[in-house]
């Protein structure tokens, strides 16, 4: 237990930054909503969400690939991506895809198939998505150099601050604040963010080597896994929403958003141990790899458990604030979602270890199997059980996904990423 608290103290900065980012996101939305008319804020929200979606669609899985390869480079010059690889994966390849996406979005807006008034939104959305993806890639060398806190703030927090700055600038220059102008300002400021990130990465190059011989081929499984994860995050709404009333769907959304807070400690743990795990695997040091997995658990478990207990204790206030019926169905739904989130943390950094140890194709397979199973369960349970059926389907899908990759990691690497490793158990497969 003492080791757990020592680890949490050492990584405390990441928790502060991550929760600060969440607070900044909420602040930005509240401030922009106060600056804009409701219709313009709706257009902004749609455009901002579209930028995040385009960023994932055109990424090619570059940030995950570069995190693994640049981390492995720290084990020796025989590892690491070549400079040309980095330019193609992080910039040129996504730019080519972005051009095709721009044409599609422009056509949809022109034919009134998207709720955006002007085709000019198409260019802003695609450019913003490309810049977002570039920022995610630039954060990787900053992280590899040892600046974990700086990299997390640069990747996850700075974008929201510059969109807020854009909103204030537009409010000062124009009588009305339009969504298009705010997003245009965001793109202009994001160019400066890209430049600043490149400068930071260059200055940090004294602490880490970024480029190698590029012998490890690029695998699109990183891209597929990211897109599958994005789809899995929305499948409960897409399928479950077919069988729920709008009121029930709204209640479920609120409960799901609250339960999703349990993923934050795991995100922080993965960001903390990624470089060490890849370096250990590249060096052939399985003991160090196991220690990385255990450190991830020590980072995530206590905060996740504390969050879970807090959420359950605060559920009466949550239900009252959002006018959610305090009945058996709602209570069971929230309990199932919370238990599913805690189970996810209990399996540890299994997907991170798989990605950093060249098992990304198995991670993609586990996500696809769980997505198919979850979709089938949603279609079968939602009509009969309502929001509780949706929650059971998603929790089951999450556990199945984790079990599959957990078994693969044990079988291929001999590493137990789960909570059992902290108690000295070794699961035989």
E-strand count: 0
Distance linking N and C termini = 28 Å
Number of helices: 17
Residue share in helices?
Answer: over 70%
Order of helices and strands: HHHHHHHHHHHHHHHHH
How does the major sheet shape up? Answer: none
What portion of residues belong to β-strands?
under 5%
Name the average pLDDT: 91
Radius of gyration from the CA trace? 22 Å
Shape: globular
What's the number of domains? 2
Low-confidence residue ranges: 425-429
Structure explained in plain terms:
The protein has 429 residues and is mainly alpha-helical. Helix content is 78%, strand content 0%. The protein has helices spanning 2-10, 12-35, 38-57, 62-73, 83-110, 120-144, 148-173, 179-203, 221-232, 235-240, 246-259, 264-283, 286-321, 328-346, 350-356, 360-385, 387-413. The radius of gyration is 22 Å and the shape is globular. 47% of the residues are buried. InterPro entries: Poly_Biosynth_Transport (IPR050833). This is Polysaccharide biosynthesis associate.
Search tags:
2 domains; 429 residues; single chain; globular; mainly alpha
Furnish the topology, listing elements before pairings:
Layout: H1 2-10, H2 12-35, H3 38-57, H4 62-73, H5 83-110, H6 120-144, H7 148-173, H8 179-203, H9 221-232, H10 235-240, H11 246-259, H12 264-283, H13 286-321, H14 328-346, H15 350-356, H16 360-385, H17 387-413
